[in-house]
Specification:
The complex is a heterotrimer of chains A (351), B (367) and C (81). Chain A is of the alpha/beta class. Chain A is built from eleven helices and 15 strands. In chain A, strands 1, 11, 12, 13, 14 and 15 form a six-stranded mixed beta sheet that branches. A six-stranded mixed beta sheet of chain A has the order 6-4-7-8-9-10, with helices on both faces. Chain A has a three-stranded mixed beta sheet with strand order 3-2-5. The longest helix of chain A has 19 residues. The termini of chain A are far apart. In chain A, 46% of the residues are buried. Chain B has 367 residues and is an alpha/beta fold. Helix content of chain B is 40%, strand content 20%. In chain B, helix 10 links the parallel strand 7 and strand 8. Chain C is mostly helical and 81 residues long. Chain C has a single domain, classed as Orthogonal Bundle (Non-ribosomal Peptide Synthetase Peptidyl Carrier Protein, Chain A). The longest helix of chain C has 15 residues. Chains in contact: A-B, B-C. Chains A and B meet through helix 2 and strand 1 of A and helix 12 of B.
Chain lengths: 351, 367, 81
């Protein structure tokens, strides 16, 4: 277990403890994964002893789309494979989940979410189909994100059937009946299409307006941008039909960083929990960039034992923010600046 | 403009007349290198080589893949020398360089060129669009790029009995260098590679140091890294810098010794041997599709005979970076090999009348 | 317009320079746009302006504005004409 998880996520950081745990984790992956050793041959010989978080070995996020990595180590019992949602390349990332990391990841996501939506259990309504849970051997990013909220749930209701866009309002009404608050989770686009834009029966609207609802969403904004929906419009559309104290919580996370999520605080920042680290790197030199400079985000955590996804260089762009945040959370924070713009190199027949 | 059809030479001259406008303005879709090449290509002295002795075949259909290189506009220009009706099928899902060239020529060309281009129709179509089937059915010449399977499907689509088919499939190319290659040769290799990385059929996806030692190979890679920033002064786009980091890791995973050119401009993946011995089976001599990045160049040292023996069956061009004696020796060894073209390193991407084993004037003209 | 002014204008146009950046002793290494396209554009521009078409080898070998002047002079095209 990581001792870093024993304190609240945004309590003062212990960078030395973080680095020691991250180095130990790199050593576990080097010893237990031949694939990882092949990619970091110099560390396989000299060992993993980074003097700073920026020196820790990393894997490019694309590696998880091409290789199914696994680390064999004492106490690591592999479970299902976590798959990212379909991307423009048509290939999913694959992350080997394991029991030990699963426990750490559940503690992590629960602690982070509680910091944003408050403690206490309440009905969780998931804008997805329960059938997505029943795939053997693998679990989708959507389901994994929804499951990260389960520790905060008194009951869990999957509100979509098959590929129907309209939710089962009867189930939702039942879930809300005896509660004064609820969590509603969906991918950003699903929450817009199947909730904000959906017609709902009057009695469900009345139930919602009498309850404090936390709408939690993740996933990209691309479809919403195409539909010319900005964050304000999105939030307003959700909160219009929700009771006093209701809020919208947008979180950023990657399947390759399962368990570590970055909700957007009320001051527009994404805070890094004390068991994680974020480095912004120059795409052309990999030099770590100071606050105020946009670069590639590298995400690091000390929770991932089943495969070397503890340190991942992403294709997301971000910028570290300087100074203290108005929300009062301590530690580093950043803002997203979209994805690395894509364009293919020209060629002949092979493309 | 006139009652009679212009001759191929007059059409070549009409293209030539576009050059003064071309030096003043460049469509943003084409890189400076591509535009420079195109300016040289439309020189009458160059286009004349593509004119056959007989009558031009009148209807040409070009089927171009997404992200086609400059070969797309070059073939379109060549087709205008012979054909009156040219149809260009562009990819339905990506950028293209044919339409920007066409638009430029229509805007800046003289009356004769505009008249010729009135016969050119381009459209973004999917493979199963009925218009494409109609274009293929009545064409005298069909030109297609694509995977071998895609080309076979296009070749077999209904067509006239007399129609000719020209297919450009999945080909690869190599650069062969002497161990003591001059700085000029190193710079040329960098320039030739940087244009399309490993993506073009004429791109040197592999560099072979002939009769070199592992130490020569290390030296070559160090020299490439040292000289890269002064030869290619523009940084690679951010996503390619990022993709190169990925492909460096994938190449390492595949057993290569990898270095990144400064600015993550390219992945230079060194092999210990070009042809593994039988007991080393499983050692990779080329990168798998999985690990081959768009800007990954593999490198090896090999004896001349081994380099010839290790040529892949789909080898298109060998670019030679040698003194005259070295080049003659390599050319002699390559006689009878599957290589379709053996040229100086600097000419690897040069589009010539004999291309990929096809004599283009004989395809576009009836002798 | 004198040949001197024509050459100055050509170099400014071809290499996308500000007028203030132009000098007759400018070297290729000082001009970012004197790349592959610059070489070809300069050759075509010299042909268009002065009637002489440099060969590809001549065009590639030009290392500064003074080399262009020398090339023209060798073809009987004087700058002060």
């Amino acid at each position: 277990m990581s001792a870093l998880l024993d304190a609240p996520p945004f309590a003062p950081r212990d960078d030395a403890a973080f680095l020691a745990e991250a180095n130990a984790l790199s050593a576990i992956h080097l010893a237990g994964s031949a694939d990882y050793r092949a990619i970091w041959p110099e560390l396989a010989i000299s060992g993993a002893r980074a003097a700073t978080a920026a020196e820790l070995p990393w894997l490019h996020v694309g590696v998880f789309k091409r290789l199914r990595l696994r680390t064999e180590a004492p106490g690591v019992k592999h479970q299902r494979v976590l798959l990212s949602s379909a991307t423009t390349s048509g290939t999913s990332s694959q992350v080997a989940l394991d029991e030990h990391s699963g426990r750490l990841q559940a503690r992590s996501s629960q602690a982070i979410l509680e910091d944003f939506v408050g403690p206490g259990r309440r009905p969780l309504i998931v804008l997805d189909d329960a059938a997505a849970l029943r795939r053997r051997g693998e679990v989708s990013a959507r389901v994994a994100a929804a499951l990260s909220l389960v520790p905060l749930a008194s009951t869990t209701t999957f509100a979509l059937d098959g590929d129907q866009a309209a939710p089962r309002w009867d189930r939702i009404a039942l879930a809300l009946a005896d509660a004064d608050a609820a969590l509603v989770y969906g991918f950003t686009w699903a929450l817009w299409q199947s909730w904000a834009r959906a017609e709902r029966p009057d009695h469900v609207g009345a139930l919602l307006r009498a309850r404090r609802i936390h709408f939690v969403h993740s996933g990209g904004w691309k479809k919403l941008e195409a539909a010319a929906v900005d964050r304000d419009t999105f939030d307003r559309a959700l909160l219009d039909d929700a009771g006093p104290g209701s809020r919208v919580c947008d979180f950023y996370g990657l399947v390759e960083q399962n368990g570590v999520i970055f909700p957007l605080c009320e001051h527009g920042a994404r805070h890094v929990p004390r068991w994680a680290e974020v480095i912004v790197r120059d795409p052309w030199t990999l030099a770590p960039l100071p606050p105020g400079h946009t670069g590639l985000l590298q995400l690091i955590n000390v929770l991932a034992h089943g495969a070397p996804y503890h340190s991942v260089l992403t294709e997301d762009l971000g910028e570290l923010l300087d100074g203290a945040c108005g929300c009062g959370r301590a530690g580093p924070r950043f803002t997203l600046r979209g994805r690395v713009p894509q364009a293919e190199l020209r060629g002949c027949a092979v493309v | 403009m006139s009652d009679r059809t212009p001759t191929p030479t007059e059409i070549a001259e009409a293209w030539h007349g576009l050059r003064p406008a071309m030096i003043r303005e460049r469509p943003p879709e084409l890189s400076r290198d591509e535009w420079a090449y195109l300016i040289q290509f439309v020189d009458t002295s160059c286009l004349r080589g593509f004119i056959g002795p007989g009558r031009g075949r009148e209807r040409v259909t070009l089927v171009l893949p997404g992200n086609v290189s400059l070969l797309g506009p070059l073939l379109m220009i060549v087709a205008t020398l012979s054909a009156r009706v040219i149809r260009v099928k562009l990819s339905s899902r990506s950028d293209d360089v044919v339409e920007p060239v066409l638009a430029f020529a229509r805007r800046h060309g003289g009356p004769r060129l505009r008249e010729v281009l009135a016969g050119v129709e381009s459209a973004r179509l999917t493979r199963d669009d009925p218009r494409l089937a109609a274009w293929l059915a009545d064409a005298d010449v069909r030109v297609a790029f694509g995977t071998d399977a895609a080309m076979a499907a296009i070749a077999q689509a209904p067509h006239r009995a007399s129609s000719r088919f020209l297919g450009f499939g999945d080909m690869t190319s190599e650069a062969w260098l002497a161990p003591d290659a001059s700085d000029d040769v190193i710079d040329t290799l960098i320039k030739v590679f940087a244009i399309y990385g490993a993506q073009g059929c004429t791109s040197p996806r592999r560099a072979v140091v002939l009769d070199g030692t592992p130490s020569d190979l290390r030296t070559l890679r160090s020299r490439l890294c040292a000289r890269w920033p002064s030869v290619i002064r523009t940084p690679v786009p951010m996503h390619l810098a990022s993709q190169n980091l990925l492909h460096a890791q994938l190449a390492r995973h595949a057993g290569f010794d990898v270095a990144l050119a400064p600015g993550h401009a390219a992945v230079l993946a060194k092999l210990t041997k070009l042809t593994p011995s039988p007991e080393e089976e499983g050692t990779v001599s080329t990168l798998s599709t999985l690990a081959q990045g768009p800007l990954t160049m593999t490198m090896a040292a090999a004896a001349l005979d081994d380099a010839v023996a290790a040529l892949p069956p789909n080898i298109q061009t060998i670019g030679l970076g040698f003194s005259a004696d070295g080049a003659a020796r390599a050319r002699a060894a390559l006689r009878g090999s599957p290589a379709r073209r053996v040229v100086e390193l600097a000419r690897m991407h040069h589009f010539e009348p004999v291309w990929d084993g096809h004599h283009l004037p004989a395809v576009f003209f009836d002798a | 317009m004198s040949n001197r002014d024509k050459l100055k204008q050509l170099v400014i146009d071809v290499f996308l320079l500000d007028e203030t950046e132009f000098r007759f002793d400018l070297r290729r290494t000082e001009i970012d746009t004197w790349d592959s396209l610059g070489v070809v554009s300069l050759a075509v521009g010299v042909h268009e302006t002065f009637g002489y078409h440099p060969t590809p080898e001549e065009a590639t070998a030009l290392a500064g504005v003074d080399d262009v002047i020398a090339l023209l002079a060798a073809r009987g095209i004087a700058l002060d004409a």
